[in-house]
Amino acid sequence: MEELQVLPLEPLDYAAFGAFFVILSLIGYWSGRNERKTSKEYFLADRKLPWYVVGSSFIVANISSEHFIGMVGAGLIYGICAGMACWANVATFTFLIWFFIPYLLASKVYTTPEFLQCRYNSILRHSFAIVTILTNIVAFLAAVLYGGTLALQTLFDWPFWPTIIILGLVAGIWAIYGGLSSVAWASIPTVIIMIGGGVLVTILGLYWLSGDSHSFIDGFKIMIERNQANEGIYAEVVAQTSQQITHQDTYNRLSVIQPNSHELMPWGGLLLSIFTISIWYNALNQFMIQSVLGAKNSYHARMGIVLAGFIQIVLPIVIVMPGLIFFAKYPEVMKLPWNELRPQADKTWIFMVQKIIPVGLKGLVLAALFGAIQSTVNAVVNSTATVFTMDIYKRILHRNGTDKHYVKVGIISSIVVLVVSIILGGFINKLSNSLFVYIQTLYAFFAPPFAAIFLLGILWRRINAIGAMTAVIFGFVFGILLKLYIHLFPSHYILLEPFMNQAAINWALCIIVCIVTSLCTAPPRPDQITDNLVCNWKNLNIFHELGNRWYTSIIFWWSLFALTVIGIIILLSGIFV
Predict the structure, then answer these.
(1) What CA–CA distances, in Å, run from 157 to 6, 151, 200?
(2) Residue 352 CB burial class (10 angstroms; 0-12, 13-18, ≥19)
(3) Would you say residue 4 lies in a domain?
(4) SS3 letters for 422-449?
(5) Do the domain assignments include residue 551?
(6) What angle separates helix 187-210 from helix 348-356, to the nearest 10 degrees?
(7) How many other CB atoms are found less than 10 A from the CB of residue 114?
(8) What distance in Å separates the CA atoms of residue 461 and residue 52, rounded to the nearest whole number?
(9) Rg of the chain's alpha carbons, rounded to an integer?
(10) Per-residue confidence at 519, pLDDT binned at 50, 70, 90?
(11) Is residue 261 part of a domain?
(12) Domain span at residue 152?
């Protein structure tokens, strides 16, 4: 593989990037200019976001530098199964649309920790608020800033610390200025430029792969053929890495269904990750759900998630397929020692941008990367400030402040969160794992206990606060002990090594602990199990505000989204390859 070179930018590239930044700034300023009068305006955009803003904001909060950097690298190493990080969300989005959103909106909460207080008690609210703040800073914001800085440093040979500082400050400015309204409305041009720039890399990558034929179709056929790895160096490198990836002698790079021993996407752990990592990430995670809480009503919140679902269908074309293209072009990179391969894989997308993007379009791709970074930074900063202000400061430190006072606290805490994340982001480069694996491993540790009590709390009235607290304590203790055991005896139980399997086992045990403890103790109070908080299975209140015509129907568009994803998973299950 050729060495990475500094990426030259021409005046047209600077003009393209500058135009995007100006548009983003104008939208951020205009939408947030009058949103600091009350805490509802600053933190929840006065609950007036339409569905297309909710969906765009949900997606751009999710997709950031760790996807362009980490997931493309995962596609290089593991193949198409990395796309299940997007496609498997069909189940969680279904839970969101039909079960979680009606109760989150009916409860009128500002944050998901506040919902846990309404359903359980203040101890769980404060505990989850602290966990949310820590994970937002360590697992999300620091990683996003590091990934973005790594890309810019590699592309332009910029010094690391000045780059991460400037990137953090510039990317987070609108979350500090205008709160959720600025963050959410700026997501519309961001999602357009992000997907457009990403698709451009993939399309030009296929032309690049096709060689002298300069054919998009030929490039696609070559990508498929070489990733099948039936002969030559492709078969050799797959055989070489198969033991490390699956602990087996064979490995299908073009199948989304992988054995339970697979390091990244074991099928059993992936199935249960719907109820663990995915629920925690998409439904409990404040920076993902905040735009949903700011929706006009249940219809706009649900239709926003449907829109996000359709975008998730095409995202693997942007954030996984470049890895397959790169494998087809440079299979020899897979011969690197394992501890060198994963950091090198994180440079895949950057290398492709350098090699294949022509003058004028480099600015567009840079805008896509910056848009992905700033959108997630803004979302995480705003949501973390919301949790700190409403769940910690207002509840524990200063109960009787004015709305303006809490907005001021939100602004100050946003600045503090950003500074701390910049400092932590500077030290992620000490990790030997890939960026994507680092983030997913943290998810797998924090998600199981809270995902368990959130799911049970909405679906079953008999679950009480004692059962929930016992499950959370058990989940974290068990998670620590499990990691210690695997570290001390790594070869004893291969099936325990994948982080998804660890999360699945922990979640299942937390479910059992929560149910048994709840049944052995007193039922919850009536105010903790109202129809606004828990499913009333005798009189389900989840079928209102579904749209009046077929083309506005949530049922129609959700069904189309779900069937499309199921079809993709069946097609890529390995049966037809």
Answers:
(1) 6, 10, 23
(2) buried
(3) no
(4) HHHHCCHHHCCCCHHHHHHHHHHHHHHH
(5) no
(6) 70
(7) 24
(8) 34
(9) 23
(10) very high
(11) yes
(12) 11-429
pTM of the model: 0.89
CATH number of residue 208's parent domain: 1.20.1730.10
Contact between residue 97 and residue 558 where contact means Cβ atoms under 8 Å apart: yes
DSSP string computed for 365-418: HHHHHHHHHHHHHHHHHHHHHHHIIIIIIIIII-TT--HHHHHHHHHHHHHHHH
pLDDT tens for each residue of 83-127: 998 998 899 999 999 989 999 998 999 999 999 999 999 999 999
Read off the tokens for 451. 């995902």
Into how many domains does the chain fold?
1
DSSP string over 125-151: HHHHHHHHHHHIIIIIIHHHHHHHHHH
Tell whether the model's pLDDT for residue 387 goes beyond 90: yes
How far is residue 204's CA from residue 349's CA, in Å, rounded to a whole number?
12
Indicate whether 131 belongs to any domain: yes
**Residue 491's pLDDT band (cuts 50, 70, 90):** low
Q: What gap in Å lies between CA 416 and CA 386, rounded to an integer?
A: 13
From residue 261, give the alpha-carbon distance in Å to each of 30, 250, 266, 505: 51, 12, 6, 14
Distance in angstroms (rounded) separating the CA atoms of residues 341 and 331 = 12
